[in-house]
Every structure is written in structure tokens, then in C-alpha cells.
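Methods — Computational structure assignment.
A single polypeptide chain was analysed. Its primary sequence is given first, followed by the predicted tertiary structure written as C-alpha cells.
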Amino acid sequence: MGVSKLSPAISYISFIALYFSFYTVASTSSNSLQDDFINCLHQNTNVDFPLEKTFFTPQSNASLFIEVLKSTAQNQRYLTKSMPKPEFIFKPVHESHVQASIICSKKLGIHHHVRSGGHDYEGLSYVSHIETPFIIIDLSKLRQINVDIEDNSVWVQAGATVGELYYRISEKSKIHGCPAGIYPSLGIGGHITGGAYGSLMRKYGLAADNVLDAKIVDANGKLLDRTAMGEDMFWAIRGGAGGSFGIILSWKINLVPVPQTLTVFTVTKTLDQDAGFKILSKWQQVADKLVEELFLRVFFTIAGNNENKTVAMSYIGQFLGDKGNLMEVMNKGFPELGLSMKDCIEMNWIESIMYSSGFSTTTPPPPEVLLQAKSPIGEVYFKAKSDFAKEPIPILGLKGMIKKFLEENAALMIWTPYGGMMDKNP
């Protein structure tokens, strides 16, 4: 059940982009293009699709069209007026609509993109990078989730978010979890096509490692499950990136056991408090080697003003167990951090999801907030990249990195350790 991937100790500034697109050329006008597409859809599906709820065009209602276009866009740099906009947006309400969309796009020669609605930082699911008209197939109405505790599995449609998935699991059980992403605004469809790592990956691997089945529409509009697509294609879609093999409609994911009590903590150190990078250097040496129940990342942010600007390094941890056992692990493997009992907060799994997502612990909102799919980044203009390292960065390299980091007005860097199950899967 392994996924082909790099096996570094640490991932630096990691993210997953969600997208799917076919590159064909459209040659008709906007109105006739839409009319031809709608007529073709009617010919290839028996399931009705109310136009006012499924089709959005700048001609019919410009403000609503822009609202729908922006609804799941993370990076505002791809929503500027100069960026190409789709001829129309279609939101399928049934799986057969997606099949028909593929058939009709090929028949009419339409360039189209498909988005599941998550962290597409590069705008590949809703912006065309070639000069030709295009449309968007938006899967946000396909978000059904069926949790089967007896089978230890869940079927989740591509338009659902990770937050919705976690919440629906927690409704059924307090001792079952899913090893997918950390942020609730991730769209599950494209998330898993990129592998999908999260806070349980050192214990249970990637979400892609825990996929049991999938439904996908291929380039001919055929609906395939694991048996029909074959094991080679099933292997490829779990980490081979979106836009390569077809449109994911739903995933069947294995549920994993989580304890009733988890422990979380955040310990922040400034540059002055980590003189000589002793703590950060030790983290690089041990983070991927500590017990697989512990997931310990480092967030780098800029703190202070221009006169006393510095870098804050927040060590954010999640441990599958109580704080007593956590303290034993940290005192033995990473005493340099200085973790204390008062830093540790015990909670259940769904509460730990909210903690990792950045929600307040002093006045925590109800778990239903996970259904809102709000991005932790917010509506900003940004550029994100990721890289990997198999060896610790030496002190000289850390100094250069921090110097460059301080040149930015606003920046975020995240270091994520692998190890555990991530080293065991081929």
C-alpha cells in the first residue's frame, strides 16, 4: 500500500496544489459554447441539473460569477483583472455530470480545468496559462461523506474538505481518525493525488497510503473503480499529482485508531533564546527519529518591528498519548527544547485538529467550525514553494537562511519531520 515518493528526513515549506485540466482548444463564442455544452450534457446524462444552481457566466450575473470563481481561490494574485477568466463555471451535482462534461469537452474541443476546491496555490485549477478560452468544472457540490465505523473506512467525494471529513468521522467515533492533511480548508479530491501528509503521517503514513478504493472518470468519460482501472493506475493516482490520469470523484480511505487522549503543545523561541541555534540544530538531528506517535514541526515567523526585528521559531507538537508519556519522550530525546508540563494540553483527536489548524484554545469554537472550510492563510497575495533535506543544515547555512528570511516584510516557513512510517513505506 506504499506510494512512490522521496524519503527525506525533513520537508521544508511544504504544500499541496490541487488541480486538474485538459488541454484542448475551443473555437466557438461564449454564448454558443455554453449552449452547445448544455445541449450536449442533456444528451449524455439522465440526471437533471438546474441551470441557476449549476451554471455561472459573466454575461448572466457578473457579480455571482466572480463570487463563485473566488469561492475556493487561495492565492489572490491569480484573481487580478489581468488574469484570464473562464467562459463559464459548471458545478456538477451528480457523478454522471462529470462523465458528460468530459465527453462534451472532447466533442466540442473545449479547454477545461477541474477543481475540487482546496489549496491550489498556483491557480492551476481556475486560471489558464495558455491563450485559449476555457471553462471550469467545479466539484464543490460533490461532497458526500459516508463513514463506516464497522468497516474502519470512509467514502468521501472530491468536493468535500478535510475539515468536513474529520468532523463527520468525529460524529461517529472518538477513537477513529484519518491520516490526511492538517488544515480543514484542504479539498480532499486533489489533496490525495499529491500524497496528502498530515499530523498522523509518522504513525500511519500518508492519506494516499491508506486509500482502499477510488472512483475516477477517465479521458473518455468512463467511470472506473479500483478493479476497473487496474492496480497500476490505482498506484499512480495516489501521489502522481492531479491532471495526469483523470478526474477523481471520490476516495475510500482507511480509518486509523487514535487514543482518547492526545497531547499538544507550542514552545516558541526567538533568536536570542536559541543562541547558536543549539535547539534548532538538535531538532534537525532528532525530529524524524523520535517515537512515531510524536509529530513536531517548526514554524518560522517574523516578530518585532523594524528596530528589533527577529525570527520566532515555534515548536508545535502533537503526541498520541497523555502528557506524562510525552514528557518522558521529550526529556529523553529532546531536552534542549525545555518542554514542561504546563506547556502541554490534553485533548481528544478532533480538538487536536482544531489546535493544529490555529483555532484558539482559550475560547475554542465548536467543532462545527471545521465545516466552514476557511483557509488559515486568508485572502492574500503570496508565493509558496517546498523543498526537502536529508542532512541537517549546518550553522553557517542557518545563519544565511535567517538573514534572508529577515529581509522579507512578511514570511512563513514550516519545517516538517518525516521518519516513522514515512521511512517504512517503499
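Note: The chain has a mean pLDDT of 88.
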